[in-house]
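Query form — protein GAT domain-containing protein

QUESTION: What is the three-dimensional structure of this chain?
INPUT:
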Amino acid sequence: MSEFTEKPRWMQEPSLKDIPEEKLDFLQKMVFESKELSQKELLPFLMALAQRSRSANITFSTDEMNTIIEAIKKYSTPEELLKMNQIMKLMQRRK
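ANSWER: The structure tokens for GAT domain-containing protein are given below.
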């Protein structure tokens, strides 16, 4: 993110202080890029995203993911929570 761009509120959550900023930036881009996608478009998007994360050598531990999800939920609208739940269900099916 640009040094002139203020971080989203969820990224400023104290519980995230031990997670590298490049991981948080990657997730912020994912959230921004997936915002307007339909449910039908989500799965191909997530598959491409998984490839990008591998290419960028970005991985998340279970603890990191749980901490990040809780931080994002604090600042999400009901519509964003619904989209997040859809994404999480799709990701779990892929395992």
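ADDITIONAL NOTE: The chain has four helices and no strands.
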